Amino acid sequence: MDHKKRQSLQLGVTGLAGLAMTSEVQAAPIKTPFTVASTYIPIVNSKEVFPVRRVYCIGRNYAAHAREMGSDPSREPPFFFQKPTDAIQYIAPKTIVDHPYPSLTKNYHYEVELVVALKSGGKDIPIEKALNHVYGYALGLDMTRRDLQRFMGDQKKPWEIGKSFDRSAPIGPIHTVQQLGGHFTKENISLSVNGQIKQNATLSHMIWSVAEQISKLSEANELFPGDLIYSGTPENVGPVVKGDLIVCQLDRLPDLSIRII
Asked: Do 139 and 110 meet the contact criterion of CB atoms below 8 Å apart?
């Protein structure tokens, strides 16, 4: 065997050995000093659960709500923020779940929202293809420590502390697009406190549609399966106190109910 053939054979064997070693390393269990819980949301009529990767929220996506927050909806492009995945508080249908009044606030607000659950993602997704990435939908709440949000905003500082905290993202079960018979477009969404309607609008009042939100968000971040998008809230957000009962409703989805404790 000449020198070149022998050298090629040796390199091939070395490459195979390296591949085997890599496979061995990949197969080995990963060891960590402690366990971190993952976040999952039940899927209706399924033994599977939806794994949550990120929780995105769009701000001021209904014109009347933008105005009540002191903004001009005709001039503002969409903006997004995030909540930690463990801000999710699952609310089963036909139950009233206790929701603790959080620390550091005296002005705790409700915001009812349609939540979009993604099954795939990408970067710079065209609007006409955006809905292809939607796995399903849920009803959710973007609970807000409004006084902290405004205080930090007035100081030109990030207002994450007003939005991103424990159990700040109550959510119902995921319904797949197939189960729903299609995507949401013009359905009615509402919220009541102690039986009195506070928020009431239709999804057609959104400034940015679900498809547009996905497309715009993908310009800033590559989207992936497991991402959630809280799609904005109608006008008349307001405070709750301990003992209040919040009931959220959206056509085609079960009610979401929490009791502030």
From this structure: no
Buried b (16+ CB within 10 A) or exposed e, 105-136: bebbbbbbbbbbbbbebbeebeeeebbebbbb
Q: What is the pLDDT of residues 174-214, one digit of tens each?
A: 999 999 999 999 999 999 999 999 999 999 999 999 999 99
Give me the torsion for CA of 160, 96, 39, 85, rounded to 10°. -10
Given strand 238-240, what is the order of strands in its sheet? 144-145, 108-110, 238-240
pLDDT in tens, 73-102: 665 788 899 999 999 999 999 999 999 999
Distances (CA, A) of 78 to 44, 53, 251: 31, 22, 25
φ/ψ region of 203 (left if φ > 0, alpha if ψ in -120 to 50, else beta) reads alpha
Q: What's residue 179's pLDDT?
A: 97
Residue type, 252: R
3-state secondary structure string across 74-109: CCCCCEEEEECHHHEEECCCCCEEEECCCCCCCCEE
Q: How far apart are CA 234 and CA 248, in angstroms?
A: 12
Angle, alpha carbons 249-255-257 (nearest 5°): 105
